[in-house]
Amino acid sequence: MEVADTLPVTDAWDKVEAPSPPPLQAVKIDPRTSALMLLDFLGEVCTEHRPRAAAALPKLQSFLTKARGRGMVVVHTTTRKGRDDGSDLAAPIKPAPKPD
Q1: What is the CA radius of gyration of the chain?
Q2: Between the CA of residue 27 and those of 3, 20, 37, 68, 78, what are the distances in Å?
Q3: Is residue 38 within a helix (H) or strand (E), and if so which, with residue range?
Q4: CA-to-CA dists, residue 28 to 25, 32, 34, 97, angstroms
Q5: Residue 67 forms part of a structural domain
Q6: pLDDT of 13-54, one tens digit each?
Q7: For residues 56 and 54, what is the distance between their CA atoms, to the nearest angstrom?
Q8: Whose CA is closest to 68, among 28, 27, 38, 25?
Q9: In this structure, is residue 3 part of a structural domain?
Q10: Spacing of C-alpha 81 from chain mean position
Q11: Neighbours of 40 (CB within 10 A)
Q12: What angle do CA 90, 32, 78 make, to 5 degrees?
């Protein structure tokens, strides 16, 4: 499918043909060569106003705990309005305190 570059993307949504999703399968994660990236999980967003984000927190917290325990690199990002220290990220998945 070809869409003109000048066409706003929202005008082309009904013309996009999405491929079928791949089948789900188990994967192995090597903590020495992988990183866990937690992107933009601001505490003010992960609330009842965004129930899917709020519901994901316990599973993310469990995965984060396992990743840290295995020495995996963990990357937290925030939005432009987020704080540099991550203090406004959702409590269950905040960055670990820096060691003294």
Answers
A1: 18
A2: 35, 20, 17, 18, 27
A3: strand 35-39
A4: 10, 12, 10, 28
A5: yes
A6: 887 788 999 999 999 999 999 999 999 899 988 998 899 999
A7: 5
A8: 38
A9: no
A10: 17
A11: 14
A12: 25
Q: pTM of this prediction?
A: 0.71
In a domain, 23, yes or no: no
Q: Structurally, how many domains does the chain consist of?
A: 1
The strand pair at 35-39 and 73-77 is best described as parallel
Residue in the structure block whose two tokens are 């070809």: 2
11-21: b or e for each residue (b if 16 or more CB lie within 10 Å)? Answer: eeeeeeeeeee
Q: Is residue 2 part of a domain?
A: no
- Split at pLDDT 50, 70, 90, the class of 3 is low
Domain housing 45: 29-93
d(CA 85, CA 63): 21
Residue type, 38: L
